[in-house]
């Protein structure tokens, strides 16, 4: 069996998969804050999976970890994982000697791209667009993650698509993330809420002008990301994941409508049938954890595998 962990800012989702890639066990635990606590979280998650399936250590042949932040290409060193209180941490060096198996580390969205590819049953080239607190994407072709020369393939969130749009945290205006990122929407909404994007959609349905503007911006930003993925790397499909996609068809229909509206004046854009190429992952799918487990696949080991 292979283990995959999605180490998030508050919770860690962990799965064990068999040789066929089927999830046989899944647990969720709280994520600790800071490097030592993150390492402890990894150990706790693996122990919890082991307890669920009563497996001896040799039955876990690898552990993959998806984590927010930058993973230095060709290493298992994570940097700038600010949501976890981690400035720099070599995860394989920290956990592999104790676990006794190879450890693979990847950015969480890139890991989710692999998982999304498997869950969607995709073939060919797929773009995974993560709509969450921020915006990022991953590209998978024939089951292999495309990282790019510097590991930045798919970082679409900071492409500016509206120079007069809202200010982004990166300093530009009108970035896709500033339009469609959950954090940006919550800040622009400015009302205390546990689920601000849902509140925006509900208020827009009730006719609130600010909510309507924010909802339209979300659709426009996400649609722009879809166009970027199709027009730059010619993906066959774009699969949407991340917390914002819990809105389901309400979100998908808005994005499809924006794509269709923007194609009305362009026969070329209409020929791409963009709205028909976009779909949602099922709610609650363990995409990042599954993708992290799949990092042990021989097709995905280049530049990822490291031993403690």
Automatic annotation (TrEMBL):
Domain of life: Bacteria
Pfam family, one: ROK
Annotated InterPro entries: ATPase_NBD (IPR043129), ROK (IPR000600)
Family of the protein in this entry: Belongs to the ROK (NagC/XylR) family.
UniProt name for this protein: ROK family protein
Source organism of the structure: Microbacterium marmarense
